[in-house]
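TASK: fixed-backbone design
INPUT:
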């Protein structure tokens, strides 16, 4: 870091003309692997889509799973399903989420948010 400030001091105190290459070298900052990974996450999320699904039977679970596998977040409203089908569907989707290392949370009594890996969700809905 002191080398960086030394180059800046040298550049500011010298009255002779500075080469363009020297200026580029002074302001060139290496990007860490962490910063590169964060940039990649932002690129992935910026292209992300969110789907809203209202399944009418367990057979619709494959369509929802395919959305998650395609890196899309899905809001699922299960209010039209019978209780047994709703439980089966939620268990299946929980397995999909586990497999892809995603997350899910309950938004309302019959509404759930399923998100794939690398799609952050800020905040939580507090239960009653």
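OUTPUT:
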């Amino acid at each position: 870091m002191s080398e960086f400030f030394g180059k800046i001091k040298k550049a500011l105190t010298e009255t002779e003309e500075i080469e363009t290459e020297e200026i580029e070298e002074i302001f060139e900052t290496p990007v860490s692997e962490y910063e590169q990974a964060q940039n990649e996450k932002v690129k992935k999320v910026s292209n992300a889509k969110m789907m809203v699904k209202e399944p009418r039977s367990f057979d619709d679970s494959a369509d929802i799973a395919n959305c998650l596998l395609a890196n899309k977040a899905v809001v699922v409203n299960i209010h039209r399903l019978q209780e047994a089908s709703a439980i089966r569907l939620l268990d299946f989707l929980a397995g999909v989420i586990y497999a892809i290392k995603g997350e899910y949370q309950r938004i309302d009594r019959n509404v759930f948010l399923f998100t794939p890996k690398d799609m952050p969700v800020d905040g939580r809905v507090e239960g009653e």
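COMMENT: Residues 48-115 form a domain with the Translation Initiation Factor IF3 fold (CATH 3.30.110.150).
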